[in-house]
Amino acid sequence: MTEAEERLAADRANRNAARQLVDGHVAQIKADLAARSVGGRVVDKVTGDALDLAGQALTVAKNSKGIIAGAIGALALWTFRDQVSRTIGALLRPAAVQDDAASTATSPSTEEPSE
């Protein structure tokens, strides 16, 4: 056998070995997909990721209670900003108006009696 023929035989043997590996991987993938569909895998992956994210969010929330409380308070104030503004305005305005109205109703006349 010449050197070229020996190299050709070695290359064919390598090709056949590589083909057996690929065929084995394809068979394994087919068996794996038959056991569990792609959709099932996606659902499992998304569910797992969502649970991990929820766990991380819970950890951050436990460590940042003050920040969360402040954000909720700011959101509540912003949501009820009209009512808060009216309430504060009502608390401040009537005091001045009542004093003026009360002083004119109960104060004696500043006019001098005519003779």
Strand content: under 5%
Q: Alpha-carbon distance between the termini?
A: 153 Å
**Biggest sheet features:** none
Task: Bin the helical content.
Answer: over 70%
Mean pLDDT over all positions = 84
Number of helices: 4
Reading the helices and strands in chain order gives: HHHH
- The structural class is mainly alpha
- The dominant shape is rod-shaped
Measured on Cα atoms, how large is the radius of gyration?
A: 42 Å
Task: Identify low-pLDDT runs.
Answer: none
The total count of strands amounts to: 0
What can you see in these coordinates?
- This protein has 115 residues and is an all-alpha fold.
- The chain has four helices and no strands.
- It has helices spanning 3-35, 38-63, 65-79, 81-106.
- The longest helix has 33 residues, at 3-35.
- The chain is rod-shaped.
- The mean pLDDT is 84.
Which tags fit this structure?
mainly alpha; 115 residues; 4 helices
Q: Helices, strands, pairings?
A:
Blueprint: H1 3-35, H2 38-63, H3 65-79, H4 81-106
Provide a short characterization of the protein structure:
This protein is mainly alpha-helical and 115 residues long.
